[in-house]
Amino acid sequence: MLSEKQKLTKIINLGIEITQVKDIDVLLEKILKEARKLVNADAGSIYIKEGDTLKFSYTQNDTMQKRLPVGKKLIYSTFSIPINNQSISGYVANTGEMLNIPDVYKLSGGLPYLFNKRYDDLSGYRTQSVLTFPLKTNHGDIIGVLQLINGQNETGKVIPFRKKDEPLIMNFASTAAVAIERAQMTRAMILRMIKMAELRDPKETGAHVNRVASYAVVIYEQWAAKRGVPQPEIDKNRDVLRMAAMLHDVGKVAISDTILKKPARFTPEEYEVMKRHTILGAQLFAELYSAFDETALLVALNHHERWDGAGYPGYVNHCDGKALTGHANNDGSVQGKRAEEIPVFGRIVAIADVYDALSSRRVYKEAWDETKVLEEIKVSSGTYFDPEMIEAFFACLDSLRSISERYPDNM
After folding, report:
1. In order of start, what are the domains of the chain with their CATH numbers?
2. How far from each other are the two terminal CA atoms of the chain, in whole angstroms?
3. Does this model's pTM top 0.90?
4. In this predicted model, what pLDDT tens digit does every residue of 213-263 receive, in sequence order?
5. Where do runs of H (alpha helix) occur along 228-343?
6. How far is CA 276 from CA 182, 389, 399, in A?
């Protein structure tokens, strides 16, 4: 257990850390994880305000996590609840008041809110102490709710959350709310770029890019953990990878409608034009101001490279699309990158993009059956895809299915 001085120092340091996280999904996970650490909570959830509802966005539960095999992540469904006084989280969002409840099964009958024990009944988990507080910006706007579940003492026994921790956690909540607001603005700007691409290419939807980006992060985590990549490095890379993966096909905005919206197979000449979207996308991030720019450039340029070297655009100068010195074939074509010559993030997004394309309905095809999709992914290991990445893909398949449900095409 941290001392009061240690907690205060921790909150100050966390304020600096979380403001450096740019992607909203990565940020929400970090906020929930760190808030739980501050008060030694076994579990917790975070809700984000969307209109008159709260969207259940992330959850963590150490007890439930320990029941899973090593390397597996907790799977959960998202849902929305109305902002009113009938639920604990709805009440906090509606009133702006914090609630510190020693035992939610012993609420008095005179309170306006109730505890929904459906999750406990389904999972076998016993919720007891609950600390729920609003995520309020500097302007006083409530943008979400953070709920911490089952405070624990040094021996792991569930206890009520301490009153003296309330000011500390509220201080952290204020910093977290500001960070969330900024991250939401960053996501909104990225989605505006996606909508611009969607005006040109109907396949480039917000749902599609959110799925591809989320798939990429999960595959990367699995692959990196197996390789022994330090957790701080994984966390840093997750942040930039998710944003960059959303923009993997942004270069298509510069491709002619005649080609981009063609409902039939491309001619060889049209295909060559289409392939240039990788180079055009990379050019958007050519002025490297941040790690995000560098990652976005690598993803845009390399997500159609193949493990066997038969992908594109190959070894080109992204500024002009010409073959780099020493990488032109005798017939003038460009040598493709192969195996580990392809940047890691390019290899990952390649899998995520193809998986989503095969699994989704398009104007020119129906969605493939999952069995057929997985067979295609499997047989492409070692030719199209990095075999090690494919192992990571299949190891986290449950998480990928959950992501697909979270971002349906009709959203």
Report:
1. 4-182 (3.30.450.40), 201-406 (1.10.3210.10)
2. 43
3. no
4. 999 999 999 999 999 999 989 999 999 999 999 999 999 888 888 888 777
5. 231-246, 257-260, 268-274, 277-283, 291-302
6. 33, 26, 32
